[in-house]
Amino acid sequence: MKPLSEFPLAARRQIRGALFDIDDTLTTDGQLTAEAYASMSALKRAGFITVPITGRPAGWCDHIARLWPVDGVVGENGAFYFWFDQAEKKLKQRFIKDSATRECDRKKLSAIAQQILEAVPGTALASDQAYREADIAIDFCEDVPALPRTEIERIKTLMEAAGLTAKISSIHVNGWLGKYDKLSTTKLFLKERFGIDLDAHKNEFIFVGDSPNDAPMFEYFPHSVGVANVRKFLDLPPARPVYVTPSRCGMGFSEVVDVLIRCKRVE
Questions:
Q1: Of 56, 54, 45, 68, which Cα lies nearest the Cα of 182?
Q2: Angle of helix 249-266 relative to helix 34-45, nearest 10 degrees?
Q3: Nearest Cα to 215, choosing from 252, 183, 246?
Q4: What is the DSSP string of 195-209?
């Protein structure tokens, strides 16, 4: 990984959209700081397409799309995207699966979650599970004492053995039925909402993240950035960000925003 300071000026000047994880990328120690929120707002005011790409649940994403200074949000690791139509004053929702399929999936996921909780002592369903539409989230450090890496990997292995797609975030292991992920639904969002073919324009977007479930984004974007705390996951495969910030979590996010906005001001 290269330091953020080596992000070339010419490449920075091409950026028109910022995509970013929430937990431990935008937030710091579980809190959305005033500084990080101000940076997100500054991005939007400066004219950048601004989109959180998160593993957090539909209930949170309803709030985010309505109230945060963003153009939309991709949630539950790609299960959907939401955006708020200012003209109609209405939340718009786009799910990858229809409601009947999601209902059927939730019954299967609930049974798998109970098996994992019994098999791995010290785990718990994430406190936001009640607000999820399409996945299960097993907490390994947010509201429970932190589990060792071997147990985190065991949760992921059990999910995969049950037929789920599984990803490790900085706080949860998420599992779902389907092959979508953060990247596939980000592409869908930009195509359907903005008419952007991301494959043809990925040089014009930056992604900022911190954990293994961001790997598809790190691998895909030529201008991917990890906040400094990404280093604790570097022993996990498969992808690393191109650049890394000097600071961790929300402060690192603010450093990325500062680089982008200063570049725009120079223009």
A1: 54
A2: 30
A3: 183
A4: ---HHHHGGGEEEEE
The first and second tokens of residue 267, run together, are: 């223009």
Query: Which two three-digit tokens encode residue 65?
Result: 């799309």
Q: What is the pLDDT of residues 3-51, one digit of tens each?
A: 999 999 999 999 999 999 999 999 999 999 999 999 999 999 999 999 9
Write the DSSP assignment of 66-83 as a string of letters: HHSSSS-EEETTTTEEEE
| Spatial separation of the C-alpha atoms in residues 38 and 176, rounded to whole Å | 33
- Give the global pTM: 0.96
Q: pLDDT (tens digit, 9 = 90+) per residue, 208-261?
A: 999 888 999 999 999 999 999 999 887 654 679 999 999 999 999 999 999 999
34-57 burial, b at 16+ Cβ within 10 Å, e below that, comes to: eebbebbebbeeeebbbbbbbbbb
Q: What are phi and psi of 179, to 5 degrees?
A: -110, 5
